[in-house]
């Protein structure tokens, strides 16, 4: 019988390598997928665009929470988050959609 050694979980504050995909219709919605995981089936080229690889904490976009990402990946295989530092055009769109204009 042989044992496969499991990789150590990332420590608090550490970021593993993720591929980030941005929703084309709602650009403030981002999906982070670990590089060593398959891309979820809902990520398609019609609705999502590859944005960047995330390899260091300094490069993480606003709204990215590494602890929440690890938890989301553990249960779902991906991490969806809201990039709250969106452009003014996105804010205007959101305000319109929410009826605050």
Q: Spell the H/E element sequence.
A: EEEHEH
Rg value: 16 Å
Low-confidence stretches: 1-15
Q: Which secondary-structure class do the elements indicate?
A: alpha+beta
Helix % is 10-25%
- Find the count of extended strands (DSSP E, 2+ residues): 4
Shape: globular
Q: For the record, give the distance between the C-alpha atoms at the N and C termini, rounded to a whole number.
A: 66 Å
Mean pLDDT: 78
Instruction: Report the sheet with the most strands, covering strand number, pairing sense and barrel closure.
Output: 4 strands, antiparallel
Count of runs of 4 or more consecutive helical residues: 2
Query: How big a fraction of the residues is strand?
Result: 15-25%
Side-by-side strand order of the widest sheet: 3-1-2-4
Provide a quick synopsis of the model.
The chain has 101 residues and is α+β, with helices and mostly antiparallel strands. It is built from two helices and four strands; from the N terminus they run βββαβα.
Question: How would you describe the overall organization of this protein?
Answer:
The protein is an alpha+beta fold. Helix content is 22%, strand content 23%. The chain has two helices and four strands. It has helices at residues 66-76, 88-98, and strands at 18-23, 29-34, 48-54, 79-82. Strands 3-1-2-4 form a four-stranded antiparallel beta sheet. The longest helix is centred in the last third of the chain and has 11 residues, at 66-76. The radius of gyration is 16 Å and the shape is globular. It starts with 17 loop residues before the first strand and ends with a helix. 12% of the residues are buried. Mean pLDDT is 78; it is low at 1-15.
């Amino acid at each position: 019988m042989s044992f496969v050694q499991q990789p150590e979980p990332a420590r608090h504050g550490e970021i593993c390598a993720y591929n980030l995909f941005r929703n084309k219709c709602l650009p403030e919605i981002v999906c982070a997928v670990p590089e060593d995981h398959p891309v979820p089936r809902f990520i398609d080229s019609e609705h999502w665009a590859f944005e960047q690889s995330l390899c260091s904490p300094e490069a993480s976009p606003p709204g990215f929470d590494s602890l929440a990402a690890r938890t989301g990946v553990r249960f779902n295989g991906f991490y969806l988050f809201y990039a709250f530092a969106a452009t003014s055009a996105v804010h205007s769109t959101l305000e319109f959609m929410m009826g605050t204009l």
